[in-house]
Amino acid sequence: MCAIGDDSKEASIICTALLRQMGAPLVVARANDRMHQRILQLVGAHQIINPEQEFGKRFASRLLYRHVIADTTLGEDLMLTEICVQPSMAGRTLVDLELPRRFGIMVVGIRRGDTKRIDKPSPTEMLREDDTMIIASSESAIPRLIKEV
């Protein structure tokens, strides 16, 4: 892991190159901007992170979609998101909502009320206003779901 701070891009590039030269099986490096990211790719970093950019994306998502409680990126275009049940969903079942067909969303868990426990979703059980759903989807599915449901 090469996580040298903002002050020295050159040092992080050299560190990443040396780690690769020493045969490190996985080199994760921290980039400050796109150019820095590109150079780290060129010297052989396997994975590049930009914490400020990641935080900015999550914060913007929270501002735009107030019903989103938390989200985690799982892959190139796969997210795990905890979202409040929308008022129009309450009293309906997952079968009624047809989320996989309409939005490409899979509900993988339901949290009832304020509990910490997450239960396996039942497709025929009615959703409640105080429920939250844990869903797996593409990033683009979340705004469509909130807008259309």
UniProtKB/TrEMBL annotation:
GO terms for biological process: potassium ion transport. GO terms for molecular function: monoatomic cation transmembrane transporter activity. Residues 66-149 form the RCK C-terminal domain. InterPro entries: NAD(P)-bd_dom_sf, RCK_C, RCK_C_sf, RCK_N, Trk_Ktr_HKT_K-transport. This is TrkA-N domain protein.
